[in-house]
Amino acid sequence: MSEDKARSSGERERTEVDAPVLPTVNPAAVKSEPPKHLIPAWVYIAVWIALSSAVIVFNKWILDRRNFRYPIFLTTWHLIFATAMTQFLARFTTLLDSRKKVPMTGRVYLRAIVPIGAFFSLSLIFGNAAYLYLSVAFIQMLKATTPVAVLLVSWTLGISPYNMRTLANVSVIVFGVIIASIGEIKFVMVGFVVQILGLTCEATRLAMVERLLSSSEFKMDPLVSLYYFAPACATMNFVVWLFLEMHKMSMDKIFDLGLFTLLANATIAFMLNVAVVFLIGRTSSLVLTLSGVLKDILLVIASMVVFLDPVSGLQAFGYSIALCGLVYYKLGGDKLKGVVADGQRTWGDYGVRHPIMRKLIVVGSILLLIIVIMGPLAPSIPQEYNDYAKTKISTLLGEKGA
């Protein structure tokens, strides 16, 4: 009797509970996907490269080919237009709303913005003036040394500590640019010095901006920076123009160039700043670095095609070294290895899916490399044949127009 009682005391009915004790996730529910961007990232990259190249080629064409030899006026006009456009965007759009988070006071503006603006103005003036003497291709090769100049200025101002390993990395860039300079066919010392001065001013500006942005309160995107810097730079450039170029100019020069040409030039330059804002928001530092290298290469090619600027084999070799050093300096060894590994996997997958196209790309690349290397060694066409061809074409065009 006692055993039955003990057995029955241990057996209890378990009540089934229909409702769960803890909240559960409905497996049938559809997970919300992050919103997809309507415009892919490569479109922003292509627009940025196109606008950046267009500004440089446009400036070269105005200053050199159209013989409008007033770089200070052109720079001042760009800054006045940028000032007007940023003020308009600040009042009627939301693109510049982040400026409200910047604790900008009159004292900060005078002590930080104005000095940076002064170097910004000088870099623009020297940069445009260099187009009067040097080819676009050679200027782009010299611009590869900008990270080196920024590093040296940062060490001089005490912004970053001195590092021998970093110096060894950037020395590859300098070595490549020296080779490219030796190979420059149309080397002009005045233009070379002007471009180096422009790079020095630009490096100082970037180092000062880095110091300013080291505080989280002063984080600014390029468009907000232009909103603050453009008025100060336009004022300083205007004063310089009054003393150096105003007495040389006349309204006839402006009308000969064309008001529409000036308006289009300033519009493209401003749209470049807008494109940079969207590009930074959609891409990584890796994509920006590689896109910048691609842009420089395309600009060199455009200089050869549009302006017929000669590029020697020695120049191409030196510039290749400089670009390799630039990519290694900005990305670092570990990230560069990852990029190479990803590229090899992508290239292998592409070869499996499109074997014929892969072979055509390889053959085309080899032929292009042979043309680039062996092209400078080919005999040049005699000048009398060039003159005859130009005269014949001009005659045919004239008869067709008549």
From TrEMBL:
Subunit structure: Homooligomer.
Compartment(s): Endoplasmic reticulum membrane
Stored Pfam families: TPT
Name recorded for this polypeptide: TPT-domain-containing protein
Domain Sugar phosphate transporter span(s) in chain numbering: 43-329
One GO CC annotation: endoplasmic reticulum membrane
Family in the record: Belongs to the TPT transporter family. SLC35D subfamily.
Organism, scientific name: Trichodelitschia bisporula
Task of the protein: Involved in the import of GDP-mannose from the cytoplasm into the Golgi lumen.
Keyword Membrane: yes
Membrane-protein topology: Multi-pass membrane protein
Transmembrane segments: 41-58, 70-89, 109-134, 146-164, 170-201, 222-244, 259-280, 287-308, 314-331, 360-378
Annotated keywords: Membrane, Transmembrane, Transmembrane helix
PANTHER family named among the record's database cross-references: SOLUTE CARRIER FAMILY 35
